[in-house]
Amino acid sequence: MFKDNAVKLGICPIGWTNDDIPELGKENTFEQCVSEMALAGFQGTEVGNKYPKDTKDLKKALELRQMEVASAWFSSFLTTRPYEETEMAFIDHRDFLHEMGAKVIVVSEQGHSIQKEDVPLFEDKPHFSEQEWDLLAKGLERLGDRAQDKGMEIVFHHHMGTGVQTKEEIDKLMQMTDENKVSLLFDTGHLYLSGEDPLDVLKLHLPRIKHVHLKDVRDPVAEQVRNENLTFLDGVRRGMFTVPGNGDIDFSSVFETLAHLDYRGWMLVEAEQDPAKANPLEYAIIARNYIREKAGV
Predict the structure, then answer these.
(1) pLDDT tens digits for 149-194?
(2) Residue ranges of the Xylose isomerase-like TIM barrel domain (predicted)?
């Protein structure tokens, strides 16, 4: 299906230990996390808070397991704080990822985000003013320039509970930014949960999609979150997200479209769950087998 060496497969550490809800997986170590990723058959990872901050230590641990770093999350606050504050933190983040050999930097705008707040996920989604949209677009382009200083690219992560969540908002951001400076991360789970057809975004924006997150959704839990006015983190605790092959998204068309349109880059399984309820190694193997079956990689 995919051309030879077109894609690399990775998995995010959030199924082992949750950076936003530290009690989830607090007993799981970095070493267990990356060892089980490799055991399940993945070749890459994004970086979590338990990962070594020293690049030499991290490189050694990953090389022992024949793993590499695909990217890492960066929170921007371009709509709510001075640009210089975001850029200073971004440069440190960029330099760390560059040293680790990553080619893309995941950026998510957290100005006004409710994903960590005690407010209903489906009721209180933030919306940007036109001034904030302008700050976001111009700020992202400047971060894109700083990434290119190191031969890297930023990939913007649309996300539930933020000002860039829906297809309409993604379309607007893509229209407002230079395609040579701002690329896009495609996340199946966040689009599906927002009520969008992920394929619509994929087909329209694939030339700018440089990073993919494979996240599945359990519809019954998502309905609980909606009907009971629960928060994003409530949904995580209840199991709203899961790995591909264990939820309600049909990934066959996603893989077919990515392959047909010649996507090249990382595809990373990302499913924040409570590891006490969803054994991380077991679910990593479920995802790896499903991707092998449906995508042929």
Answers:
(1) 999 999 999 999 999 999 999 999 999 999 999 999 999 999 999 9
(2) 37-282
- Look up the CATH superfamily of 7-295: Divalent-metal-dependent TIM barrel enzymes (3.20.20.150)
Longest pairwise C-alpha distance within the chain:
49
- Does the pLDDT at position 1 exceed 90? no
Helices 280-295 & 30-40 angle (0-180, nearest 10): 30
Of all residues in the chain, what percent are helix, strand and coil, respectively (each to 5)?
Answer: 45, 15, 40
- Per residue, the 3-state secondary structure of 215-237, as one string, reads CEECHHHHHHHHHCCCCHHHHHH
List the chain domain ranges. 7-295
CA distance 77 to 63: 34
Are 170 and 158 within 8 A, CB to CB?
A: yes
User: What pLDDT does 114 receive?
Assistant: 95
Q: Quick one: pLDDT at residue 284?
A: 98
Of how many residues is the chain composed? 297
Which of 43, 67, 28 is CA-nearest to residue 275?
Answer: 28
Task: State how far the Cα of 267 lies from the Cα of 211, in Å rounded to an integer.
Answer: 7
For 150-178, b where at least 16 C-beta lie within 10 A, e where not — what string? bebbbbbbbbbbbbbbbbebbebbbeebe
DSSP element (H, E) containing 34? helix 30-40
Dist. CA 267–CA 247, nearest whole Å? 18
pLDDT tens digits along 43-79: 999 999 999 999 999 999 999 999 999 999 999 999 9
Distance, CA of 289 to CA of 297 (rounded, Å): 9
